[in-house]
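Box 4.2: Ligand-aware structure prediction
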Amino acid sequence: MATISQLWTNTGSGLATLMFVYTIFKQFFPQFGDNLEPLFHRIFSPFYPYIQITFHEYSGEHFKRSEAYLGIQSYLSKDSSARAKKLKASTTKGSKSLVLSMDDKEEITDDFEGVRVWWQSKKEGASRQSFSFYPEADEKRFYMLRFHRRDREVIIKKYLDHVMREGKTIELKNRERKLYSNTPGQSHGNNTKWSHVTFEHPATFDTLAMEETKKEEIKSDLVKFSKSKDYYKKIGKAWKRGYLLFGPPGTGKSTMIAAMANFLEYDVYDLELTTVKDNTHLRRLLIETSAKSIIVIEDIDCSLNLTGQRKKKEEEEEDGDDKNMIEKKMMKNEGENKESKVTLSGLLNFIDGLWSACGGERIIVFTTNFVDKLDPALIRKGRMDKHIEMSYCCFEAFKVLAKNYLDVEESEMFEEIKRLLEVEEIKMTPADVGGNLLPKSEKEGAETCLKRLIEALKEEKEEAKRKVEEEAKKRKEEEEEKKRKKEKKAEMDAEKEKKKKIEENGEEECGV
Ligand SMILES: Nc1ncnc2c1ncn2[C@@H]1O[C@H](COP(=O)(O)OP(=O)(O)OP(=O)(O)O)[C@@H](O)[C@H]1O
Ligand SMILES: [Mg+2]
């Protein structure tokens, strides 16, 4: 007599055979297979411990690929490219590289918190026999997730979230990044709109000439920011951070922005304030920016109409070269800026008004050559959280440039360069140092370039000395002029006094 366990074994193998036959049958006669499936499920579901979820490529009425499907595709691409035997390569709009995903009818497993799941890529074929111009359009693709029913909780509460989150991260990594600008050429009615090109700037923190400690500090600040979504929520602040980059021209402010964007894999919005019509337009541009982006306003000191107000206020105080340079830049911008009515309060609202919180994960960067001339309200901590000074080339920064430009890490000429930069304190921007290190022909070797730099540094020293002497001479002349004027005034005052006295004496005599 058969025991109970034998009975179960026989039933099990019988069911397995039936399943096998059914699968073969379905492959050869898909149209019948689809019709029989519900019946099959009803018979077998009490013995079948697995749950299935399907994620269709197109769902809803709009012919748009489902976010869930694309997220799963990205999530599975990392494992399927390593494990699946049949792969499918496709390009997705806005993606910088081919996306490899498992081909139809492939299956891979995934493990999560000790739970195993099975993912299958499937296609519901066009059941009609008629000829179609677009056979692809008749096919419906979907992913099918299978898991044991005992794992239902973990899958529904945690795993699916994990898949979507990871998928989104991979999607963002693969996307082609963009550089947006609001140039007047792209005007829409009276207002400029964002237009974009692919962001391809090669600058990275490795190529940036700067002290290593400062670089590391900025990098860790950026990483901390990008991972602080929950923290910002906890403290009730919008998820954004302001950077102010200041320093003389050619010290790498724009390069630093490119390096930041490449480091965080963010898009860049280069905001040209002079073409923004008014505060409302500014707000609209802000709303149209996406998360994971850096919004840049270069030369903030010269690009605002409010500099006009400041100009009046500070005109008397400004002196020397700074004043001339600012005025030159402002005059240039004022020509383009006739239409702009953006005000300081409009800009402050842009940075931290209510609208600035929409989207989240944004970095705002201002650059300026003259930090002292900026309105304190604009750069106070909280608005511009981190102030970074980009300064003249130090020896450490030179070493980065020498390695990047010439592949040289050590040379006997380094000692002389170090002396010139550190002891003689010669000021040369990284842009100029780079210019001297750049080989001018195929024949020029590293040694020639380093010698050229040494010569240029010495010339710079002479030039600086000349400038100091000229300035001292000018100051002396000014002082002498002042002294002369003072003496003349004193003379005139004495003369006046004398006249007054004579007149008074005359009156007295008459009175007598
Ligand atoms: N710190 C740096 N590291 C590497 N390259 C640099 C650095 N600074 C300047 N350069 C080089 O000099 C060029 C000019 O630099 P950049 O445009 O970043 O200067 P900037 O500070 O933005 O100047 P400006 O104030 O005129 O806008 C860049 O193309 C870059 O190659
Ligand atoms: Mg710049």
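In the box above, the bound molecule is adenosine-5'-triphosphate. Residues 127-132, 306-323, 330-337 have pLDDT under 50 and may be disordered.
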